[in-house]
Write a structure and sequence with these properties.
This protein has 6 helices and 4 strands, in the order βαβαβαβααα. The chain is an alpha/beta fold. A 4-stranded parallel beta sheet has the order 2-1-3-4, with helices on both faces. It is globular. The termini are far apart. The mean pLDDT is about 90.
Length: about 180
């Protein structure tokens, strides 16, 4: 059982300027997602970050809400929270696969998203995973988003000495080392 295994957890990232996350939660199983939200908020506050919380009807709407926010707001990253418990139909597979796929595609486009949509077989599994004192998957999703934001900031700050230079960049670089052309 995964709950009995030891897992390495990265140290919290540090930020030199404020970080703001949007927590998007589908509260279909409200008691479970309330625990996940508590874990996410604690993790964000632990790095001095701020957050906004919105609710959507279900897990399928979480990626859409993130896309809307990305196009209209100024968040550094996103925390996707929800819970899908297997039922008697294939709807479970559709919700799990499609919400996960949409979040992954947005991540590949550069959005910093921590995916905390639980996909479990039963309520007991969800309760253990959601509990901030146990597996704390809400906190883990927030931590993932924060690490991606930190990584994005690190790489966006590296503008010199990385990649190819245009001809004009090379001329400017050469002039700065030997002096202007007409000197």
């Amino acid at each position: 059982m995964a709950g009995n295994e030891q897992h390495y957890i990265l140290p919290r990232p540090e930020f030199s300027k404020p970080v703001k996350l949007l927590i998007v939660v589908a509260p279909y199983y409200k008691d479970i997602t309330d625990n996940m939200v508590a874990g996410a908020i604690a993790e964000i506050e632990a790095v001095g970050g701020s957050y906004q919380l919105i609710e959507v009807p279900g897990a399928l709407e979480v990626p859409t809400a993130i896309a809307i926010a990305e196009n209209t707001s100024n968040f550094d990253g996103y925390v996707a929270l929800g819970c899908v418990i297997r039922g008697e139909t294939t709807h479970y597979d559709t919700v799990c696969n499609d919400s996960s796929r949409a979040i992954q595609l947005m991540g590949l486009q550069g959005l910093c998203i921590g995916n905390g949509i639980l996909t479990v077989e039963n309520r007991a599994q969800a309760e253990v995973r959601a509990d901030p004192k146990d597996q704390n998957k809400g906190g883990g999703a927030a931590a993932a988003a924060l690490h991606l934001v930190a990584l994005g900031r690190k790489w966006s700050a590296q503008t010199k000495g990385v990649g190819f230079k245009t001809r004009s960049d090379a001329i400017i670089l050469a002039e700065s080392s030997i002096g202007p052309k007409n000197a």
